[in-house]
Amino acid sequence: MERLEAILAFLSEPPRVLPRFRRRVRVFRGEDTLGSALEHMVRKDYSQVVVRLDGRLGLLTADDVTHWLGSSLGKRRGKPQQASLREALGDRAWDGCEFLPGHALVDDALRIFEEAIRNWKPRVHAILITRGGRPDGRALGIITPWDLLGYGLSPPLAA
Question: Is this model's pTM higher than 0.85 or not?
Fold first, then answer.
């Protein structure tokens, strides 16, 4: 009976992305150096960081760094870590990033990742949570596919 009550409570008030995925998100600026972002990524063991370019939030991913390094070999003078994030990202900052408002359901986040796979859309690296789900808002949290692993198996639905 307790299990049934837990399932009914879960269904009547499904979890929202906030507060579940609220995090303090460090937001880098386009003028910040690639080296500072990479140091942060290594220190925190992140595969992406949030960057604000032209007033919009986006991502710098490990894939972006690899792409930029490969394409700039022999072309760029100076140390790669001194490049600005704007230079390293170009217009790729918005390629693997989606947005949700804080009141969205966790299932909405799951659906974004599932649809990207189902529709052969380029990989979605993360979903940024902002007020109103707008790219020009303040970052209130971030959701990665890893954050949702096992979500459907978590209590009260777990056997």
Answer: no
